[in-house]
Design brief:
Mean pLDDT of chain B: 97
Shape of chain B: globular
Number of strands of chain A: 10
Largest interface: A-B, 25 and 21 residues
Shape of chain A: globular
Low-confidence stretches of chain B: none
Low-confidence stretches of chain A: none
Number of strands of chain B: 11
Radius of gyration of chain B: 13 Å
Number of helices of chain B: 0
Radius of gyration of chain A: 13 Å
Helix content of chain B: under 10%
Mean pLDDT of chain A: 96
Strand content of chain B: over 45%
Largest sheet of chain A: 7 strands, mixed
Structural class of chain B: mainly beta
Helix content of chain A: under 10%
Oligomer: heterodimer
Chain lengths: 110, 116
Amino acid sequence: EIVLTQSPGTLSLSPGERATLSCRASQSVSSTYLAWYQQKPGQAPRLLIYSASSRATGVPDRFSGSGSGTDFTLTVSRLEPEDFAVYYCQHYGLSPPTWTFGQGTKVEIK
Amino acid sequence: EVHLVESGGGLVQPGGSLRLSCAASGFTFSNYWMSWVRQAPGKGLEWVANIKQDGSEKYYVETVKGRFTISRDNAKNSLYLQMNSLRAEDTAVYYCARGGGKGDGWGQGTLVTVSS
């Protein structure tokens, strides 16, 4: 069973700053099956990045994903006010096709 | 545009049952795996179950196996989650999501509260 560990738990930053979020897998995973989601209070999650580095439709290019093997990163180049939220990484398996989420990183206004 | 609307949540006593529904529109429902994900109050996301396009394959998180059943009706563009033997720890917002891989469309969720 793959376990995803996100760090830090909370990131306190100011608008305009760069955010770097980490997701570490307990064993090597294919980057094809690694995604990132954004969730704001009272809202459903929103897909940001899939296949580790591909932006979902409508996602601003200030969001980027990278990584391979066990270490993946979500970067927000310059934080906008609407980017303060909780971010989750997700692995989707093939056999069986189950989902695993990290515990989340909260990006809060400093 | 993907549009998913969950319903059926509510307050139920421990040991009780509920059936959640998810009405889909804006895409060809029968072409996609579908999933249920839940979120306990103040906690993170937990995948619950998913189902193949034709319903021939279903998968569950270990903690709900034998108690929850996922199903779909492609003629009605609907996804379901039958939840039996509910426990306090099943209290959560339940989301339906499009996809068996990346979840590229989500409903707004329905709250299930298990309490006496």
